[in-house]
Each structure stands twice: as structure tokens, then as C-alpha cells.
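Notes from hallway chat w/ T.B., transcribed later so I don't forget. T.B. wanted the structure written out for a chain they're using in a teaching module, and asked if we could keep both sequence and C-alpha cells in one place. Agreed to drop them here.
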Amino acid sequence: MISLSVQGVRVTRIGLDGSAEPQDDVVARDVAVCIFVNDEPYRTLVASPGMVEELAWGHMFTEGLISSTDEVEGMIVSPTRVDVTLTKPVDIQAINMGRSTLLTTACGSSLRTQGEEIKLNKVKPLKIDPALVHDIIGALNERSTVFRETGGTHSALLYREGEGVVAFSEDVGRHNALDKVIGAAIMRNVDLGECILASCGRLAGEMVLKAAKAGIPVICSVSAPLLSGIRIAEAAGVTLIGFVRGRRMNQYTCL
């Protein structure tokens, strides 16, 4: 039985010897999810089906549109659309026009983007055990079933000591996977300042920035960081760990 996250397709397997063999295969599904805020279009995200409400909560939170669940008066969710009513007026047009996508520098506790300076609060340090980080990445890999089927998704996981895995998501977009697990956590009033984030993807600046804004103190990944990710982690006091593979890992910040 094929899940909602994958779609059956017919492919032709071609070999270098000239062979061509028809086969059944599966690919990861993607849909456009439209988020409306106070009856205005806010974002259209290309995402995997499922966890649409968590995606909306997490995206608004990590993008700074809301700072707590109390600011949301109501939410109507369908498979490809979310209508959000906030308790405050917002200028969606100004928000979308001012959105920056390129992070150029990070120094001290502030970051400068294209025409915009972002102030980051230092996260509360969280002591970590390398063996625990190893186990958390193992849990991430174990749950990534759609990736094993298709090779076309990213995954993210939040872990809190004493509680275990708080949230897990697979999505065609690594930003969406991160937003979904953060959204799931804030819907349950989980203290993100006590959580470790695990990701399968590279730790680029925009990914680390989302986690830092949410107050997550530790980020680990099977992949590499980018320089922008390291600089943002340094500015926010986030512990950044990459290349968690086998029995080794690289710690880049908060040494």
C-alpha cells in the first residue's frame, strides 16, 4: 500500500550496455500549501502532504510572524490551504517585500542581511553527551522511511531529555521539515530551549537561523555546515555538530 507521501510511477531502467527494462517505482509527492493570514496571502510552500497545521505554526514562528501561540485567534486547515486569524493586524505586503534570503555576515549577537539587521538572543546552553547525539541521529535515520523508498525527502527530529523524541517529520523541503517539527512542538507547549534538533541536511545559514530564533540550543546533522550556519550559531550561542557518522562527529561552535 502506497502512503500519501509517495506516488507510484513507471520508469525505464537503462543500463550502459544499452539495456532498457520497464519497472515500477515510487517518488516523493509534493503539493503547494497556501497560507493565508488575516484573509491575505502570506506564503505558498511546496511541501510533502501531511502535517499541514504543524507546517503553518512552525513557519509563522520561525519567520517571526508570531512569537507565541496566544497570537493566533483561529486556524482553518485543509490539505493544501491554511487560513490563520491573528489577534493583531499585520502588514503582509510589507513583510513579504522585506523578506531577505541572503545572509552575508554574522558578528557578535547581530546578523546583517540585505538591508536588514537581525538581532538574536543568546540561547540557554545545554550540556550534551556525544553518545546521545549518536543515538538521536540513529533515531532520525530509522524513522526516515520515505527517504529510503524514494531518496527524495529531508528529515528533521526534535529530542528532549526525559521525554525522548518530541516530533519527527519528512518533507521534500528541508526548511519545511524543520518548520513542521517546531510547529508540532509549540502546539504541545514543549520548551524548545531544552530540545536537540537533528537534521539530515546541510546546516546552512537559513536553517540555523530558524532554529536559533526558536531558541533551540543544539543542532546536529549527518551532513556538513556552511560558513553562514557556523557564523549564525556562534552569534546565537548554538552548539553546532555536523558529520555525525559512525562513532565520530565534528563540533563547530560552543567548544
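Follow-up for T.B.: The longest strand covers residues 6-14. Might be a good example for the class.
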